[in-house]
Amino acid sequence: MERRDFLKGAGIVGVTGLAGCTGGPTGDGNGGGGNDSNDSNDSNGSGGDGGEAAANIGMVYATGGLGDGSFNDQAQQGIQQAEEELGIEYAERQPDEESQFPTFQQELAQSGNYDLVCCIGFLQQSSLTDTAPQYAEQNFMIVDETVDADNVSSYVFREEQGSYLVGQMAGLLTTEEFSEGGGETVPDETTVGFVGGVEGELIGRFEAGFTAGAQAANEDVEVLTSYVGDFNDPSGGQEAALSMYDRGADIVYHAAGNTGTGVFGAAQEAGRYAIGVDRDQSVTQEDYADVILASMVKRVDTAVFDSVEAVVNDEFTGGETTALSLEEEGVAAVYGQELGDAIPGSIKDSVDETRQGIIDGEIEVPTDPDEL
């Protein structure tokens, strides 16, 4: 359902490159990785050399599951890196719906087999707030939210910063004639779009940054916004994006998990462009690489790996929140593998300047779309 459209003036701002059974792991080495969220998926790493694992880790993914080419897959990349480099073993859970979060969190904690339980996604905050005090000896980490508990390490990101960069790129490109790959712009329209998954403070930061960046690039750019209400509804994402393309949008940015796959399909159908999220989706969703201009990468893998490394090194610190921004390379913007080289150098230079301006504190990026 479309929530609102934005059309507000913004001054031109001096603008990196575009630069988620109670037994322990069974050691089958495949990392789970299936898409059946009801499987127990107690699988994984060999512990490096076949000996005792450096640590056993439980993973509870966000709804939408593995194979989204985005948030969950990025989290899995982090645990797989830890398996390879640190010699840990891990088990995975893929909830179908929010009501399963406490079940999986408590199952892994109650088993007593895991040195750390990783909770991927802001929707797990409420259930983990209840679960963590019940298992005071169990270490947890959460991505995208903060849980105030001595046994929880929280990781958050400055999504608005990376979103500002891709917003600026979109705001500049929509004013130019650009025809590469599977799409083209219509400069007379100067319209772009944002498709969100579930409306709330977190996805609002993506929206706020993108809108501010687009309008800082050109005050005449109109930003259409729609929330689908789900992170695993590609058809809903396609419908929302097609509506925007029909209304003149050249480029649509999504922060919607697997729902965003539908945005890419809509871009191909309409002969327009899209911007991915969380990972370089021109790589993870390569069938759509001809319409993916760029992606706002969010290093969920870094958060997972760092938290596991802290456990392995006996340095885990609960009750603290780590914020990852452009400066720490926790977020970044990357150009698409097929279209990136075709984006004008003048636009890339402007985005480079903006990135540094944000890091230096010269540009303040809004976090709330209602305050734009």
From TrEMBL:
PROSITE patterns: PROKAR_LIPOPROTEIN. It is found in: Cell membrane. One of its GO terms (cellular component) is plasma membrane. Keywords: Cell membrane, Lipoprotein, Membrane, Signal. Residues 18-51 are annotated as: Disordered. Residues 59-367 form the ABC transporter substrate-binding protein PnrA-like domain. It comes from the Archaea. It is a lipid-anchor. Residues 20-35 have a biased composition (Gly residues). The keyword Signal applies. Belongs to the BMP lipoprotein family. PANTHER family: ABC TRANSPORTER GUANOSINE-BINDING PROTEIN NUPN, TRANSCRIPTIONAL ACTIVATOR PROTEIN MED. This is BMP family protein. It comes from Halomarina ordinaria.
